[in-house]
Specification:
Helix content: 40-55%
Distance between the termini: 27 Å
Low-confidence stretches: none
Number of helices: 9
CATH class of the largest domain: Mainly Alpha
Oligomer: single chain
Radius of gyration: 24 Å
Largest sheet: 2 strands, antiparallel
Strand content: under 5%
Mean pLDDT: 82
Number of domains: 2
Length: 211
């Protein structure tokens, strides 16, 4: 990341790495580091068998709980709406899976009122609540990551002439000629290169038979 930033973006001051500047930081969270990296660590021998089995139990519990919250339905009965009002939440107007109650004032612990079987460890409960409440945002970011991976696979040939691309602004063309990115993914990380410019580059690659 550091090398890519220095090559692609450049810097006019001392380079500092901040977590707030990380790409896709909604996905690269501290709370899900083990879910993202533990299996890879085990494969390369950095995680012992005991810790790995503990991780598998946690992962299984999270998946099981997510599945259960999809199956538990909450009906807009008078009793259920009274419970929601006690938490400062608006009453339901239609039946919903419990995991669809993503209101800020409703937390996972509140769902015990609708399903006693949801009593699980705190660490699992917290992870499930995060995944449920931010489900839409996380899915959108995962789609962005997949798009980024596809762009990284689109390479510019060594003889590609950025100055021959019609439709690019003078500023974008100068930056592309200066940095000479090797892939569409790297070009997307250059400051000032817009999504429209990336589309123009892709169209030109197709016209010239490189895609």
């Amino acid at each position: 990341m550091l090398i890519d930033d220095l090559v692609t973006k450049g810097t006019a001051e001392p380079y500092r790495m901040f977590t707030s500047r990380a790409e896709y930081r909604l996905h690269l969270r501290e709370d899900n580091a083990d879910l993202r990296l533990r299996e890879r660590g085990y494969e390369v021998g950095l995680v012992n068998e005991e810790d790995y089995q503990i991780f598998l139990e946690k992962k299984g519990a999270i998946e099981k709980t997510l599945s259960r919250t999809s199956g538990v339905r909450v009906n807009p009965t008078k009793k259920n709406n009274e419970i929601l009002q006690q938490w400062g939440s608006a009453p339901l107007k239609k039946e919903l899976p419990s995991r669809n109650i993503k209101r800020p004032e409703v937390h996972f612990k509140h769902l015990f009122a609708f399903d006693q079987g949801l009593r699980i460890f705190q660490i699992v409960r917290d992870q499930v609540e995060i995944q449920v409440k931010y489900d839409g945002y996380i899915k959108r970011q995962l789609e962005q990551i997949e798009k980024f991976k596809r762009w990284e696979e689109v390479s510019f040939p060594e003889e590609f002439d950025f100055s021959s691309v019609i439709g690019l602004s003078t500023e974008v063309m100068e930056k592309l000629k200066k940095i000479n990115p090797t892939s569409l993914g790297q070009a997307s990380r250059i400051s000032g290169v817009t999504p429209a410019a990336l589309s123009i580059l892709m169209v030109n690659l197709k016209k010239q038979g490189y895609l």
